[in-house]
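pls read this stuff:
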Amino acid sequence: MHIKIILLYFFFLRFIENSLQKKRILVNIFPGGKTHNYVIKNLFNYTINNIDIYKYEYHIIVHDIDLETWKEEIEYTLNNYFIYSYGNKTIFKDYFGKSIEEMNKNPNYGFLTFNKGMKFNIKEFIESNILQKLKILSKNEEDYFNIIGTDVPNYINKLLQSELKIKLKMYIFPPAIPQIFFSNFELNPSYTPTVGSKFTNNMNFYERIQNFFIQSATKIMFKIFQFQQSKLVNSYGYNVDSFIHFQDAIHFFQFPLGIVFPMSFPPNFILLNTITSENPKKINDENINNFLNQYETNIYISQGTIMKSIETENLFDIINYYKGKNIGFILGIRKDLLSDNDIKKFPKHAKIIRWINQNDLLGDNRIKLFITHGGFNSICESIFHGKPMIVLGVGLDQFNTASFVKKYEMGISFQKRTFINKENIINAINEILNNKKYYENVIKHSKFIKKLKDPRKEFKYWLDIVLEHGTDYLIIETYMKKFSWFIVNGYDVSIFYIFLFFIVFLIQFKTLKCIYCYIFGTCQKKKKEKIKIN
């Protein structure tokens, strides 16, 4: 009897699902960003598992390096994900691995290497047969795909939208760093720190000068990159211009207030609360639990990325300093950055793990301090769970997250490589463990962000609206008409009023001068004097 009820319920669900209108979403994901993939999957899975208006069908284009990340979605969902992969893992690592290293060393010049990697990625995609497959699938029907999305603005997406005739588009930005991709959007350098800068939203005059220069130089640099990348696309016989237009799309930002500096946005920019942070699950690993129970205080050092900031010998020295002090260290470090032989050198009060659910570990009350490279999701999870931080922010948006943590005293930040040494790290650990203000400040922010809306529900709500009504109701036409920054910021009107003021002032001055001359006769006297002289 029970089996019959379950079967009837299953067939009922299938009937409801099949009766819903299908919406096809094409998404091109920038290669190599594991966190980006995780955040996007988190949002998409919610729309699949909470069906009410539409049945969502996601067509995901990924580089081969990210294919494993999405394979599990194919296995556990029925006709909701269709995955298309391209590219070469090894060559990708050579191109993008070097570019990320260069960007960490020098964020400005590193972008030049990054641009080469972008162009190679475009070349790999065009020379694959994915676009042809999608054309056959869509039978060249307009709006076969209802909307196209990406996490990083790029010319692959622009090419797909043009060739497949997709009207609607969306951007899903896992980190809250919109600065480098926008032209007309309001990014006032007086109070908006540029990505890769060490500034807060309260800058002095000298900092504003630097911020204005960095922001302007970055925009010019990306304009050059856009021209080069569009030229590459067109060399294959396509026709795309060099302008990546953002203003006529729906934007989803992981932009949790209380973790980032506030900014003003147009209506088509939807701000989502932290996506990867959630109530933790109990840690089931017996070895980790036994280790955590041994010590009064446990410190978590996050991911392999930290090894680029702290040399291995310094890390040994820092951990050895706390030998016999009832403090344990959990280090999450990738195998390619720390070999099995190196692990044996660490003392007993250090435990090396290759992977763990970071959200669950940070949510464990036995962890008292988090040492992180400053990745955005790591900062979000740490604040969500009320853990003070030591942030080693020495690259890209890590500068910005480190500045935020520093300003609101939720931890201690290092933004220069030369400052990251044994003595400074030990002093920072001691300061945070012995000063309650860091814990109190991070708890205050934690309570606030836990009150914000569920980002998954918010994403689905706005995606449903856009698919039904389009983006016209959300668009500010001044942005949409591709006006230049000169017009968008009203400088043309300001110049007109300055000119008008000058003309009115000149007329008034001449009028008052004539009245003065008429009343006092000064003009007649001057004329008589001139006649006498002549």
